[in-house]
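Q: Got a minute? One more chain.
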Amino acid sequence: MKSLLIPLLLVLASSSHAAVKVATLHPILADLARQVGGDQVEVVEVLKAGGDVHHFEPAARDIAAMRGATLLLAMGKHLEGYLDKLRDSLGAGVKIVEVGRPIPSLKLDPSQEVFVCCPNHAHSSIDPHWWHSAENMKRAARVLADELTSADPANKDSYAAGAKAASKRFDELKRWAQQQISAIPRSDRRLVTAHAAFGYFCKEYGFKSVPVLGIGRGDDASPQYIAQTIQVIRDQKIRAVFPEDQANPKVLSEIVRSTGVKMGTPLVADGTALDAHTFETMLAHNVRAIVAALGTTGQ
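A: Always. Here it is, folded:
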């Protein structure tokens, strides 16, 4: 009996191991990998909730944690400026997948319908914050399923099912957001934020984006541009402005003093907040904050 039991335990132990080790450079990607990969993936979160995507650069311990991974998931669209250097450090054994690369990019440009006005110095910059769109998250789920299938063809059906289930959930979240946002009159769907991080959200839910600064947190707004933004707020009777969870609200505070508009609850821009680092929790937080400030019940 003992001789039969030992091989059986070895089989059970080997079958319990995940097929693919996946390292992630954003907590939203970690959550997506778990949704699509299920028990077939082991997820190593390199950039964890509470991290700063704009200032993070992998340390030696992070590089050590990535080694042995089959895939390293990055947001892409130039968000992680250190990727080329990281490729050299990791070598050919780890495939870096820029999940956002095949997702259509939105450029910061006042000629695009989604923007009311934009800082001149940021024209034509690509907005890397594609994860604010449920449709983009569905695209990302398919990208990830394809990459996992390439790495582990034996579990192709499992990954396809995971992507399908994730996409269904993203559809449900989009419908919920649309229902909540219906409380905001279309004429009031103007989203004034410090940085141009919400273009994909605005495009998906019918808002006009009014960013005071550019894409990055290092951008500054000239007095002329602040004056232009104040004029837009007055002309369009915008009722609230929204700071971001990891950004200094100084420039928005100046606008509030000049216009008398409300300062809304800080929005989660980068998706790394401790209490909002999955697509679902980020979207729920942002929609509730926006509706509370701009909805008919918030007047």
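A: The chain has two domains: 18-105+135-169, 173-298.
Q: Perfect, thanks.
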